[in-house]
Amino acid sequence: MKKVLIIGGNSYIGNSFIQYIGQLEEKQFLIDKISVKHKEWEQYDFTGYDTVIHLAGIAHERETRQNAQLYYRVNRDLAISVAKKAKKSKVGQFIFMSTAAVYGSNVSVITKDTLSQPNTHYGRSKLEAEQKIIDLNSDEFKVAIVRPPMVYGYGCKGNFERLVKLAKITPIFPDIQNKRSMIYIENLCEFLRLLIDQSEWGYFHPQNEEYVCTSEMVRVIGESLGRTIYFTKAFNWGIKAMQKKIGMVSKIFGDLYYEVDEEHHIKILEIKDISLVQSKYSVVNFKESIHESIERK
């Protein structure tokens, strides 16, 4: 049975992963978690762990001039220090949770030719951490860099939470046919389980099997809430004009997705993406995932 250590004890993904593994019929991992507050990780003994998952980081804070350096201290410097300690402690695998934000907000379709050009402190700090951590990769210390798109699920903060709040009160919503990569938390947890079980290394870009249209997501959210929401194209011209000027509008209504081929292989030819195809970790389909995210609220 593999021993797993989660860095970022109170993280949404970390707590969800522990719960997900605990619900499986066959117990596969022994999981411990520690916080990075008060530098607890510096005194903690990493020896004997097969995998360390680094989930500590800053994501949902509003970026300002005052907190810019905090992103680099936490998302970059801390992650690199933890990875170095894990390697020194002879941990076999290090999983770093990065983000699709390393590609920046000026891109809509991400393929093998898409360059990493982050334009936020969040994206830059994650990319700079990736670049140093992947250099530690070896036969004895396998590094897996995970770049998920928007994660959603019960209790998840961010844009999904905003859409749920909006769906509770709005009678109408724009009818815009966009395309976005997203991943439901249980699908991400299954993906991480496979990474650990198979001792994978490289860059990975997990996503739901289906692309998500924001209008369809709001419709299903409304359905889960027992509400009928009416959709109109009347606002589309204004929304399209605002997408280029307002980042939040672009995040909600613009396109941003990892391109896949007919067999659902993500067309980003990093080291070993193709070894984990969609059918292996998409354990919950889109509609069911929305219902599960709402019903417990």
TrEMBL record:
Q: Superkingdom of the source? A: Bacteria
Q: What Gene3D superfamilies has UniProt attached to this entry? A: NAD(P)-binding Rossmann-like Domain
- Stretch forming the signal peptide: none
Give start and end of each NAD-dependent epimerase/dehydratase domain.
4-198
Read off the PANTHER family from this record: BIFUNCTIONAL POLYMYXIN RESISTANCE PROTEIN ARNA, BLL5923 PROTEIN
**UniProt protein name:** UDP-glucose 4-epimerase
Origin organism is Mobilisporobacter senegalensis
Q: What lineage, starting at the top, does this entry show?
A: Bacteria, Bacillati, Bacillota, Clostridia, Lachnospirales
